[in-house]
Amino acid sequence: MFSLKSDSPEKTLELGKFIGKKLPPGSIVLLSGNLGAGKTLLIAGILAGLGVKRTVKSPTFNLVHTYSLESFNINHFDIYRIAPEEFFDLGFEEYFTDTDINLLEWGEKIEQSLKEEYLKISIKNLSLHEREIKIESSGSKYLALMEALKKWS
Questions:
Q1: In the chain, what are the domain boundaries?
Q2: At the top level of CATH, which class does the domain 2-152 belong to?
Q3: Which residues, including other chains, have CB under 8 Å from residue 1's CB and lie 6 or more apart?
Q4: pLDDT (tens digit, 9 = 90+) per residue, 64-121?
């Protein structure tokens, strides 16, 4: 597990950019934290690190926004408003390919049902501007990223 404290939105964004540059193809990233913790901000950084230049908004009512890059897609989910079984009933697991990257806000809702390896990022508000960010990996797919994070901090 990797843990750090972010004392500004800028640091959270920079962490996201670093993660985005290191994510392997086919990544699944689960983000958890209360409302306003910074999940969408961290995802904006991840998308920037992957090369997305568009403004990022949470897909709260659309459930998923897809960003198409040259050789893969990035799917940004917000599953706050659906039950865990609905995620699979709607066929969203079909987005989980060997190349596409999937970022799931409120991803802890489906964590128990995942068969694939995934990265889990938990964000906790410590104060108005300070956040504790914990990153855990399930499986060996993210070992290089976890090692790089230790050197980054």
A1: 2-152
A2: alpha beta
A3: 134, 135, 136
A4: 999 999 999 999 999 999 999 999 999 899 999 999 999 999 999 999 998 889 999 9
